[in-house]
Amino acid sequence: MWATARAVRMRAVILQLCTGFGSARPRYTESVALTATIYNLSIELADIDRAVYETIDLRVARQPSETPEYMLMRILAYCLEYTEGIEMSQGVAAGDEPAVCIRDLTGRMTAWIEVGMPDADRLHRGMKLAGRAAVYTHREVRQLLGQLDGKKIHRAAEIPIYSFDRGFVDELTALIDRRTELSLSITERQMYVDVGGRTFNTAIHQHAIPE
After folding, report:
1. Of 97, 125, 143, 164, whose CB is crowded by the most CB atoms within 10 A?
2. Nearest 10 degrees: CA dihedral of 8, 13, 14, 18?
3. Is 74:61 a contact under the CB 8 Å cutoff?
């Protein structure tokens, strides 16, 4: 009789192991959702061209699908546009929002700032909504201008496209860690960035969307 009871218990244990029912550590077949990586940056900004001098503590959430270069463009756009009311969105996860925007005291958007390769519809919508738009790109600027050429964009001639010297973005991206201190200065449309004891510089090139 004791042997029979033991056999019953053993069958119950085997059944639980096979089905996972009652197990203290059930197996999950669905993948765990990836989350954003947080970067904390301390930036000493000296924009001599605009007389803007600030110490900025910036917390940036880099989404799993966001490249390091795209994130760096968001950071640079934020610094180069820095003023009261500036905000950074969630980047590629922001949906219909721009990468960076500026709002007045009423909450109305006054500047729509894109990075990378925005399409014409986004720039058209942003320019109509905010009255001012700009693009900071790390991509091939001729490709971007060709993509926008001939498209319906509200006041397209007033939207500047900014690009940087070849290699600057790649070199700087390699030094941005999850905790980074850097200094950034702009004078006569030349930008100088010091990070980790190394200094990089680039011209800030401005382009116009073809009419």
Report:
1. 164
2. 140
3. no
**Type of residue found at 198:** R
Tell me the domains of the chain and their CATH numbers. 37-208 (3.10.640.10)
Type of residue numbered 65: S
- Enumerate residues 6+ apart whose C-beta is below 8 A from 24: none
Counting Cα atoms < 13 Å in the Cβ hemisphere of 163 gives 16
Query: Which amino acid, residue 211?
Result: E
Measured CA angle at 135 (ends 122, 77), to 5 deg: 120
What φ, ψ does residue 40 adopt, rounded to 5°? -115, 120
| CA distance linking residue 184 with residue 200, whole number of Å | 10
Contact 73, 137 (CB under 8 A): yes
* pTM confidence score: 0.82
Q: What tokens appear for 201 in the block?
A: 């510089």
Q: Helices marked H in 38-109 — which ranges?
A: 68-80
Going by their DSSP bridges, the two strands 133-136 and 109-115 should be labelled as: parallel
Using CB atoms within 10 Å of the CB of residue 63, give its burial: 0 to 12 exposed, 13 to 18 middle, 19+ buried. Answer: middle
Contact between residue 77 and residue 100 where contact means Cβ atoms under 8 Å apart: yes
162 token code pair: 């900014």
Amino acid symbol at 45: L
Q: Which of 45, 38, 40, 42 is nearest to 193 (CA)?
A: 45
Strands 100-103 and 160-164: unpaired
Query: Taking a C-beta distance cutoff of 8 angstroms, is the pair 170, 69 a contact?
Result: yes
